[in-house]
Amino acid sequence: VNVSLAVFNLLPLPPLDGSEIVAWLLPEKARTVFRSAKGLAMPVLLAVVLLFPGFLFRLVDPVIGWLLTTIVG
Fold it and tell me: Which of 46, 48, 51, 39 has its CA nearest to residue 14?
């Protein structure tokens, strides 16, 4: 469960922590535009989670599988 939550939290979507990593890597002008979308991102993320419940799981499942295989052995 912890690995799943960590991978989900690192998605580069503005309400999640992964967006801060992406923003840090962007040039200043692109960073400003990226951060300006932060207000709309939470409702969009919530809508995606509620309307398409398996979509985000299919997106992060290969990463979770790889991490668990690497950690557990």
Answer: 39
